[in-house]
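Much of the work behind modern protein science is quiet bookkeeping, done one molecule at a time. The protein below has been through that process, and both of its lines are reproduced in full.


***
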Amino acid sequence: MHGRIMLLVTLALAGCAGDRYAQSRDSAPPVHVSVDHIPDAVPRVEPRSKYGNPESYVVKGRRYRVRKSAAGYVARGVASWYGTKFHGYRTASGEIYDMYAMTAAHRTLPLPTYVEVTNLDNGRRVVVRVNDRGPFHDNRIIDLSYAAARKLGMIETGTAPVEVRAIDPKAPRRTASARPGYTLYLQAGAFASRTNAERLRRRLLAVVRGHPVDTARSHRDGLYRVRIGPLSSVELADRLARRLSSLGITEPHVVVH
């Protein structure tokens, strides 16, 4: 939930003023509320939301392009969650955020989209309806409602490695879900030139002592990717990412395999 920015309905993103929300920091409800009785979102065919689906939009100087379709979307990464600070405020779709509903925010999936989210730490899974934009914190791929995050067992940690899989509402049969287990890396750069990749790898060896650094060529696009890891936790990956950013290595990002 750290760094969470909610889009205004008009997508005037820069207008998210500090006094828009009653709370300065996000949190869980002050009193524990059981969410066991809250069912997963039920996929159904819906028209695209009137709001929140521009061709592209910009947040913090970065442009995001909204996907024309969610068909076939599967991704692994780090999930975060948002709670009381945003409860009762409008989401990017224009709907009111309810932290006890099974919803989520995603930067590029069409609104609404139904996705299955699996916690790769414990195998728990939920189905949520994406009706908001975010998270805009680096190295996060989805922002879950408080209820969804609690059902996945990630409230205390704040984050979790997850697999996100879009559901076709016309044929919402459950596919084989991800099993627990993953490998975590921090990607520091991707290059067409192996020479440039090796130059960065050697630089990193002096910066992140005690952590493996390798260069691997992707069969998909032919780029040489420089990665640190495997790493033991999301928290460690975040710390290393901040260190690299302070050294001018732009946009390091977490990779979950």
In short: The radius of gyration is 19 Å. The chain is about 15% helix and 30% strand.
